[in-house]
Design a protein that fits this description.
Length: about 400
């Protein structure tokens, strides 16, 4: 007889964390309530002193639907606990600010999503946190930057949009040797293809808006970690600053988790085929996809990730004007700035998601004017290949 801990990931994604009411509903219930009623004053007093796992006080502190989502994603990741947030950036903000104070030192990879970079580069120093930046792929830089007083290292396990990997196991070993925590954003690698806790992460962050929802409906985020960190450090910060996920969004995320494994695997298979097709086109000067042998970190990707993921970056020859012509010629792939969606989405990072960076900073990260980030959806892969190659031909 197997226990819930023995379930395979796909089973956990369907059944993990389920709480059923006295009515025995099949689909998880949406508890759209701000507050909760107590049978007597003594119960109210005791619940404010210490709430049990199925005892709730106020929706900003916790909710049965949100708790189901938290328990399900924690079970998949192998984390002790999780806290769901209003957005992916609420998760990043909460994970960092809840454990840092003036005078602390952190080391961060330079290759970060624009809003993450704003928090690390602008907001944390404003509150007295010292930040050292390193090239994430260079272990020597990590080793030189992590000090005896370093409190935390922060990184994207697969960077946006250049798909640069960080050797998480090696960085975690360096950080832990100095007593530092390791906090990672694992959105691009996905919880399907990378087990970040097994590689040494102490906290893992997701924008649930991406692959977890997977259908462009709701914002959400989640932070996973030890019971002590989530309950003792993160939860007090988030419940008093108001970053909680709404019950309706949590229900949408629960429905998304049920199909996430199937979706991500189908998208990754299509992404590999598309990346190979793009690599052979004369108007493409570079293709970046961790599943291709041509990726500069292909060996690390093969060790660290089960598959190459759902996102491709490719560079159109002749720069921004040519990239715009390609984008405008697409018929199936949509122009937007989300990713991890059932619909394929193309983005021009230089003028959208990473436009606030200086030209020098983008150049240093390898974000060129001709680069297009492609999030591969669930359309027929043959249609996507025809659409992309046709757009490149016409451009």
């Amino acid at each position: 007889m197997t226990t819930k801990e023995d379930w395979k990931p796909r089973t956990k994604l369907v059944h993990g964390g389920t709480r059923r009411s006295q009515y025995g509903e099949l689909s998880e219930a949406i508890y759209l309530t701000q507050g909760f009623v107590y049978p007597d004053a003594e119960t109210a007093e005791s619940r404010f002193l210490e709430s049990g796992p199925d005892e709730f006080i106020y929706a900003r502190y916790g909710n049965p639907t949100v708790a189901m989502f938290e328990d399900r994603i924690a079970g998949l990741e192998g984390a002790e606990a999780a806290f769901a947030t209003a957005s992916g950036m609420a998760a990043v903000n909460g994970a960092l600010f809840s454990q840092l104070k003036a005078g602390d030192h952190i080391v961060s990879a330079k290759a970060l999503f624009g809003s993450c970079l704003y928090i690390v580069e602008t907001l944390l120093p404003r509150f007295g946190v010292e930040v050292s930046f390193v090239d994430g792929a260079d272990l020597a830089q990590w080793e030189a930057a992590i000090r005896d007083d370093t409190k935390l290292v922060f990184l994207e396990t697969l960077s946006n949009p250049t798909l640069e990997l960080v050797d998480l196991a090696a960085v975690a070993q360096l950080a832990h040797a100095k007593g530092a925590q390791v906090c990672v954003d694992n959105v691009f690698a996905t919880p399907v293809f990378q087990r970040s806790f097994e590689l040494g992460a102490d906290q893992v962050i997701y924008s649930a808006t991406k692959h977890i929802d997977g259908q462009g409906r709701c914002l959400g985020g989640v932070v996973l970690g030890t019971e002590a960190f989530i309950r003792g450090t993160l939860e007090p910060y988030l419940k008093h600053t108001g970053g909680a996920m709404s019950p309706f969004n949590a229900w949408v995320m629960l429905k998304g988790l049920e199909t996430m494994d199937l979706r991500c695997r189908a998208q990754a298979e299509s992404a590999l085929r598309i990346a190979a097709a793009l690599e052979g086109h004369g108007n493409v000067s570079r293709v970046l996809y961790p599943g291709l042998p041509s990726h500069p970190q292909f060996q690390l990707a093969s060790r660290q990730m089960e598959k190459g993921g759902t996102v491709i970056a490719f560079e159109v020859a002749d720069g921004q004007a040519a990239a715009f012509r390609v984008l405008n010629a697409l018929q199936v792939v949509l122009i937007s700035n989300n990713l991890g969606d059932a619909k394929s989405i193309a983005t021009h990072p230089t003028t959208t998601t990473h436009q606030r960076l200086s030209d020098d900073a983008r150049a240093h990260l390898g974000i060129t004017p001709g680069m297009i980030r492609l999030s591969v959806g669930l359309e027929d892969v043959d249609d996507l290949v025809v659409d992309l190659l046709g757009a490149l031909d016409r451009a």
